[in-house]
Specification:
seven-stranded mixed β-sheet; three-stranded antiparallel β-sheet; alpha+beta
Length: 359
């Protein structure tokens, strides 16, 4: 099914409202999810409502919850997402960090009790468009956590624990890096399952640590491979663990050390660490920000001008594929797998809202 972006966003906002979110939260959820679809990351788009409704039914996600500030200093803050929609709480923390960076040169925020935060590049791209440098990471680590085994292990211990950086440029769109520390994000496997597709080799292993191609293997006790897999998985492992430990800044003195739904934690907390971390830096704190952005542009354009390797037509820089996808899908519409469409239709019927028109 192919759906026009504005119609899909209106549907998403209405669905979030029907789940219990207020107008502001629902607007952020709808905008975030559809922008992920427009950007070509369907794994982080409206298909996630299937997960969110399930989490709400289990009492994990609290759609009506809004974040609150627990601790605030000149350049740092601690937020409690209170298990509300993570897209909204993380954007609130990001806006706070942007404000502090403009005042003091940098701003840092940690968020505890967060649910799924969506596509991290959405936050760092927003920061970079403000002329600032942004870093966002979210992670979890501990026995039985997430969907990723530690390097050399066979049992779940880590989340997909992504990192994202946004860096402003002059006269061209910013650099936006966003990637999981697993070989692929879990949502890519979820999307393949909804399409009835097999996976390429090296992405998942079964519950005994053996390689697999069937997406279902992951949801039957299997694991995602680390970035680098057997050859260089120690690199993905280190980055993944670092994401969890940095995010764990949100957990200090936590009176309710409970897991977040997006973290895929066991019922018992045990020896685990998790959280969201946002850092925003104003280049002006270090010198002429215009000169910095000009130099960034020179480097990005030089990279794009590099001769392509055999079999490639051009060299792109991080952020370019998403921008191209947004232009294309804004004109052609957003494709939704039939299985996902049917599941969304069932959710829409349950909440008494109408599905968007599709071709």
């Amino acid at each position: 099914m192919v759906v026009e972006g504005a119609a899909l966003e209106a549907f998403s906002v209405e669905l979030a409202r029907a789940m219990g979110a207020d107008a502001e939260v629902a607007a952020e959820v709808g905008r975030h999810l559809v922008r992920a679809n427009l950007s070509g990351h369907d794994s982080h788009g409206v298909m996630r409502f299937i997960q969110y409704v399930e989490e709400a039914d289990r009492g994990l996600l609290r759609p009506a919850a809004r974040p609150r500030v627990l601790r605030e200093g000149a350049t740092t803050a601690l937020f409690d997402a209170r298990r509300g929609f993570g897209h909204h709480s993380t954007m609130v923390a990001t806006r706070w960090a942007i404000d502090r960076a403009r005042r003091a040169g940098l701003g840092a925020a940690a968020v505890r009790h967060s649910m799924h935060v969506g596509r991290l590049g959405e936050y760092t791209e927003r920061v970079a468009e403000e002329g600032l440098v942004g870093l966002v990471t979210v992670g979890v680590a501990g026995p039985g956590s997430g969907l990723v085994a530690p390097f050399g292990g066979s049992q779940r211990f880590l989340g997909t624990n992504p990192w994202s950086l946004g860096i402003p440029a002059a006269g061209r769109p910013p650099f936006v890096y966003d990637a999981a520390t697993s070989t692929v994000a879990e949502g890519k496997v979820r999307l393949a399952r909804s399409r009835g597709s097999s996976l390429p080799p090296g992405l998942v292993r079964d519950h005994e640590g053996r390689p697999g191609l069937d997406p279902a293997v992951l949801y039957e006790g299997g694991t995602l491979t680390l970035l680098g897999d057997e050859l260089a998985g120690h690199k993905g492992y280190g980055l993944s663990m670092a994401a969890a430990l940095v995010g764990g800044l949100a957990m200090m003195d936590d009176p309710e050390p409970t897991p977040a739904g997006c973290m895929r934690m066991p019922a018992e907390w045990g020896t685990r660490i998790a959280g969201v971390f946002v850092l925003v830096v104003d280049p002006a704190a270090f010198g002429d920000p215009d000169e910095y952005r000009r130099r960034v542009t020179e480097v990005l354009e030089a990279a794009a001008a590099s001769p392509p390797a055999p079999g490639r037509s051009e060299v792109l820089v991080p952020g370019d594929p998403e921008r191209r996808s947004r232009r294309r899908r804004a004109a052609e519409g957003i494709p939704i797998p039939i299985v996902t469409w049917s599941e969304l239709a069932g959710i829409a019927e349950r909440f008494g809202i109408r599905m968007p028109a599709a071709g």
